[in-house]
Write a structure and sequence with these properties.
It is a single chain. With 462 residues, the chain is an alpha+beta fold. The protein contains 11 helices and 25 strands. The chain has 2 domains: 37-215 and 248-283, Jelly Rolls, CATH 2.60.120; 293-449, Sandwich (Jelly Rolls), CATH 2.60.120. It is 24% helix and 31% strand. The strands form 4 sheets. Strands 16, 17, 18, 19, 20, 21, 22, 23, 24 and 25 form a 10-stranded antiparallel β-sheet that branches. Strands 1-2-3-12-5-10-15 form a 7-stranded antiparallel β-sheet. Strands 4, 6, 9, 11, 13 and 14 form a 6-stranded antiparallel β-sheet that branches. Helix 10 (422-429) packs across helix 11 (433-441).
Length: 462
């Protein structure tokens, strides 16, 4: 009988060994992706046109995005454009760069609480709640949650989505995947697959051969029509219409799209209405927050700029996503003091331009250049950086791979330097105590510096 416990222990040790081996292999696969000697500001490499807009992807094979385990896409949606339902293999945050519209999100297990009572003589429609969004909103899209967008305004809206591929909810690989439930995503899928296959060393002819095998069907409803008809309890003709891909892409034009919506004031005030039970709490969780309004700023300097943060304290759902965000504004020639973060930080320049300097753990400069409007720059975890706006100022949004990322400034109020005793500063940097005092206390700003804050050189003593 004593052999059974021994066998159990042996099996457990074997499983533990293989688990450690798998984790070690996974670590080795990604450990060199952050051996960065040079960063560069990057722009999208693919652009896919649909009927009512277009989708752009940054190269997921870019070393800086692979280091952060993040993928980024930008969508521009014209008036009356409907972004067809899809979901992703990982959590994502979507920032509204410009415009406004409507978002529908289908949360599993949640009831269809929006119900139509206007139509007589036929079955009433019902669906899950919809939300209105505007410029500056950050929208939380959990992995596997279907969603759609509609532009009912008279100008295009632009979104930038950050997909956190390194999050534990993504149990596939570090390739971004969008699972489309409608439309024809063939061109977008082809371009993404080609980027992924280039990373794997697959030749162009092999790519075309692989695409030929799979070109018959491109969305997630490509099952046997007979079985689908039984599943939905409809005629097969209806299923065949659903499976027709069309040529409009993933953003189609729909005039005067109708859906159930409360009166606007009630909708805005009651968007966090309560439901009973634990599931009701999940279904009623707040999914978006605005970070562009000046009055929402967490840090403000009238000469330099402002910063608004969004973390899991403000939006609790972010604690499950492992992500947070920040939107900042620098006025004319205002700057951010040198600092580092405990998470990867992905900057997207919304307006203007700013000069960034980034330094690695060896004190080597890995980036010293301008980031222009529409460009992206990743600052890896603990890499120190500083930036200064150009003459026209700068506005950016940054996303962190941590739900409550912490930034440590090197200068100014609350900085690393102010936390070190004066004599330690003098000894560490081989300067006088008076100079150490100046280094510690001359900048009385919090995170910012201005061109006018630099003191005049002292007159030479006679």
């Amino acid at each position: 009988m004593a052999k059974l416990p021994l066998l159990s222990v042996s099996l457990n040790l074997l499983l533990l060994f293989h688990g450690c081996l798998a984790r070690s292999s996974n670590f080795e696969q990604f450990q060199n992706e952050c051996q960065i000697n040079k960063l560069e500001s990057i722009e999208p490499v693919t652009r896919v046109k649909s009927e009512a807009g277009f989708t752009e992807w940054w190269n997921p094979n870019s070393q800086q995005l692979m280091c952060a385990a993040v993928a980024v896409l930008r969508e521009t949606v014209e008036p009356q454009g409907l972004v067809l339902p899809s979901f992703s293999n990982t959590n994502q945050l979507v920032h509204i760069i410009k415009g406004s519209g409507v978002l529908g999100m289908i949360l599993p297990g949640c009831p269809a609480t929006f119900q139509d009572s206007q139509h007589q003589g036929r079955r009433q429609d019902q669906h899950q709640k919809i939300q209105r969004f505007r410029e500056g909103d950050v929208i939380v899209l959990p992995a596997g949650v279907p969603h759609w967008f509609y532009n009912d305004a008279n100008q295009p809206f632009v979104t930038v989505a950050f997909l956190h591929l390194g999050n534990s909810v993504n149990q596939l690989d570090r390739n971004p995947r969008k699972f489309h439930l409608a439309g024809n995503p063939e061109e977008e899928q082809k371009k993404l697959q080609r980027l992924q296959q280039q990373k794997q060393g697959i030749t162009e002819s092999e790519q075309e051969e692989e695409e030929e095998k799979h070109k018959q069907c491109t969305n997630s409803l490509c099952f046997n029509p007979e079985y689908l008809a039984q599943a939905f309890n409809v005629d097969e003709d209806v299923i065949r219409k659903i499976q027709e891909q069309g040529k409009s892409g993933t953003i189609i034009r729909v005039k005067n799209l109708q859906f159930i919506e409360p009166p606007r004031v009630q909708h805005e005030e009651g968007r966090r209405g309560s439901m009973g039970g634990d599931n009701g709490v999940y279904c009623a969780m707040k999914m978006k927050e605005n970070i562009a309004e000046p009055e929402l700023a967490d840090i403000f300097n009238p000469q330099a700029g402002r910063i608004t943060t969004l973390n899991s304290f403000k939006l609790p759902l972010l604690s499950h996503l492992g992500m947070s965000a920040e939107r900042g504004v620098l006025f004319n020639k205002g700057g951010l003091v040198p600092q580092w973060s405990d998470a990867h930080r992905i900057f997207y320049m919304v307006k203007g331009r700013a000069r960034f300097q980034v330094v690695n753990q060896n004190g080597e400069s890995v980036f010293d250049d301008y980031v222009e409007q529409g460009q992206l720059l990743t600052v890896p975890q603990n890499f120190a950086f500083m930036k200064r706006a150009g003459n026209e100022g700068a506005e950016w949004v940054s996303f962190y791979t941590n739900d409550n990322a912490k930034n440590t400034p090197m200068a100014g109020v609350g900085s690393y330097m102010q936390g070190v005793p004066e004599e330690v500063v003098a000894a560490a940097y081989q300067i006088s105590r008076e100079e150490a005092r100046e280094v510690k206390f001359n900048n009385q700003n919090n995170f910012f510096f201005t061109s006018s804050s630099r003191p005049q050189p002292r007159a030479e003593e006679a």
